Amino acid sequence: MLMYLNIAAAAPRCARPVWLCLWLLSALLSLRAQAEDYFDPASIERHGYASQPVDLSTFSQRGGQAPGIYRSEVYLNGNYVDERSIRFDHQDGRLVPRLTKRDLVEWGVKASATPAFMAMAMHNILRQPGRALPQAGVYYDFSQQRVDLSIPQEFVRQTAQGYVDPQAWDDGLTMLFLNYGYSGSESWSDSRSGRERESFLNLRSGVNLGAWRLRNYSTYTDGGDDRHWNSINTYLQRDIKRLKSQLVVGESYTPSAVFDSFAFRGVQLYSDDNMQPESLRGFAPVVRGTAQSNAQVTIRQDGNTIWQSYVPPGPFAITDLYPTSASGDLEVSIRESDGTVRQFVQPFSSVPIMQREGRLNYALTAGQYRTPGQAARKPHFIQSTAIYGLPRSSTLYGGTLLSGDYQAASLGAGKGLGTFGSVSLDGTFAATDLREERRRGGSFRFQYAKDITASGTTLTLAGYRYSTSGYYDFDEANGYYATLLAPGNGRRADGDDGAAEREQRAWRYSHNKRSKMQININQTLQGLGSLYLSAYEQRYWGIAGKERSVNVGYNVSYNSINYTLSYAYSTTPYTPERDQIVSLAVQIPLERFLPQSWLNVSASSSRRGDRAASVGLSGNALADNRLTWNLQQGYTNRGQGGTGTASVNYKARFGEYQAGYNYARDARQVNYGAMGGIVVHPYGVTFSQPLGDTLALVRAPGADDIRVKNNPGIYTDGAGYAVLPYVTPYRRNRISLNTENLNSQIDILQDAKTVIPTQGALALADYPTARGAKVMLTLQGATIPFGATARVRQDARSVEGIVDEKQRVYLSGVPAEGVVQVDWRSGQCQAPYRILAKNADVLMITTRCHEKGAKK
């Protein structure tokens, strides 16, 4: 049965804009049909070209196109497997890819799928795959540049969902990069003369060479009399694909699944879950708090400042931490504009460590204990841990930690309880040689996690640990906290001597841990908002006080107005006063009056009697919401009076910049900041927004100011390059360009690419471009049928087009002069041309096409 597609009725409407007619014709010819597609040439309205022949034989069937090499994406049973240049031949009037047995095996077909397939040599071409693999088929969609392989599932290797062949992992380009984050302020006060300056610089730098990654993480603090550089860690890393592991040499942190994490200098080999398919995989925390003024928030981990910036009055949530280890205590300091400092500790760790049956997760570390100061002991050690998945949703784990004056062993088990969640229970036993005696003890830990889908409850982590008086972890045994007691460690940017921080650490150094409890709960309320709870309590041997922090909040949206009610509580064993703050924040959209803007109202009250209230406006502006702004006016009691702030944040293609102004009754402050990245690669130097760990380089030579889709503020620079600062390692990342703003002298031949980078790589997303003019050629001197193929050479490629019913052809990206080769079923001709003037986006050129005789 034949399907007749008649577009005669549509022809008069598209007779003038020929390219629209061709587009409509192409769309109709690409329709899928159960039988052969057929186009009746007599249905074309020719307007005086009645004798004009029509040759649409090449395009009469789905997939019809001139044979040659085309860049195509390959899908196996609907799943993307590859992208490559493939040669296509004509077969039964269609374009058919020239595929070998090796190609199919690489894409997932079993080499021994059938006797016939097994007997074939790897280089053999499968022109009809169905003969060797019954019911197999190959389909090509030229408009999408997509090859679909349909292979019965019994002939395909079974892989986990999301599996990516390690051979496809890309180690990326050689590069050198620098990621920077700078924040600073200048303050004036009526109570003192002059001005105070303070600044903080965060630097992450590195070099990639093949699979090797060299990394350094450093900070610089300038707080009046305190100016110092701090190199937090430097290490060399690469992945070991065969083991699905990472090798680290240098300064890093031990894993936290079995023992508490600590810093070391040495070598480490550990399993990397990121290399596993997404369906087989087993965390930086969100730090919440409440500021009562324009406050400076500083977050430290292991004595190092890892985050510092300014927040407006009201509740805040910090979601962009770059922790230096996988778990531990985060020391959060909130310094209000009047100099008042509030502190609390937020611990974090991963959920119970369940593993799939037969899965082994391991880590081997050898080196020297490392601390930020000089007072602690720095012994050499060897640590090994292993986690193994057993049948019946069970997991066994344990490890050993051996050093000269310290030995520890741990053993535990985890169990999946089905609808009741998962639990783990473990015990760690340690012997410690102190200066005067040998201490022995144990530490016992219980963890629980559960998602209750029906009620919308997420119990991220609930845990309890109890340690006997003779138990010391490795940090405690080596006097870790003693290194943080000397003046100069833990200093704040304002030049304060850090007495409060040192007092807290003195307590920790003098008393080893006794017990610890923590819980994190998120609860949705079926359209009535959501609740969150984060609580932590730590007890120490030898003192009666507790270190405790609680954060509770309720969020709800009603009539597009957002409400947030929060409560924060913290206390420490070394300060008798409890810190409690209750706050309410309301956000009202002003879309009717001022697009992309909100009215913000907040109020807070503390147990000490401090009260604050503020009202302000905030919003977004410019394309992709690259500019955010905030205006706020507040009031505080206790003689502080009115306060105010104004700030802007601009996200450019080459960085992110902030500026703000704050004032109080007797003080004023200007703060500013900049974040961004600099990447040196084989094609030059590219400036970017703040960089993540794994990157992609967009390369579209000559195509400037092209937006990368789904990435606000990221555009190609003047040379056609852009850095995508966040891509997922060991996964397929599809990167698409918005080509609407292309200039008349450049074309992007393919606007989407897929990259699969390894950890820390700079993957190349290379978009071929055609530099040249856009022309509409009118061909004279020969009778050329509608549907003939025209092509002209440009560098190492061909620019192609289809001749219309008026013997015209549109070509994009052609050189200033050349020869157009025109082919149809029974003949061919050549048309030389030269572009003399470039006075329009599309140039109209008439040239003679010299026939070469009929094809044989």
The gist of it:
With 856 residues, the chain is mainly β. Among the domains are: 2-59, no CATH class; 68-158, PapC, N-terminal domain (Ubiquitin-like (UB roll), Roll), CATH 3.10.20.410; 682-770, Immunoglobulin-like; 771-851, PapC, C-terminal domain (Immunoglobulin-like), CATH 2.60.40.2070.
List its traits.
five-stranded mixed β-sheet; Immunoglobulin-like; 54 strands; single chain; Ubiquitin-like (UB roll); mainly beta; 24-stranded antiparallel beta barrel; 856 residues
Shape: globular
Tell me about the largest β-sheet: 24 strands, antiparallel, barrel
CATH class of the domain at 68-158: Alpha Beta
Report the count of strand segments. 54
CATH topology of the domain at 68-158: Ubiquitin-like (UB roll)
Unreliable sequence segments: 1-39, 42-51, 485-497
How helical, in percent, are the residues? under 10%
CATH superfamily membership of the domain at 68-158, which one?
Answer: PapC, N-terminal domain
Summarize the structure in words:
The protein is mostly beta strands. Among the domains are: 2-59, no CATH class; 68-158, Ubiquitin-like (UB roll) (Roll); 682-770, Outer membrane usher protein FimD, plug domain (Immunoglobulin-like, Sandwich); 771-851, Sandwich (Immunoglobulin-like), CATH 2.60.40.2070. 5% of the residues lie in helices and 54% in strands. The protein has 6 helices and 54 strands. It has a 24-stranded antiparallel beta barrel. A 5-stranded mixed sheet has the order 5-4-3-7-6, with no helix packed on it. A hairpin with a 4-residue loop joins strand 6 (137-141) and strand 7 (146-150).
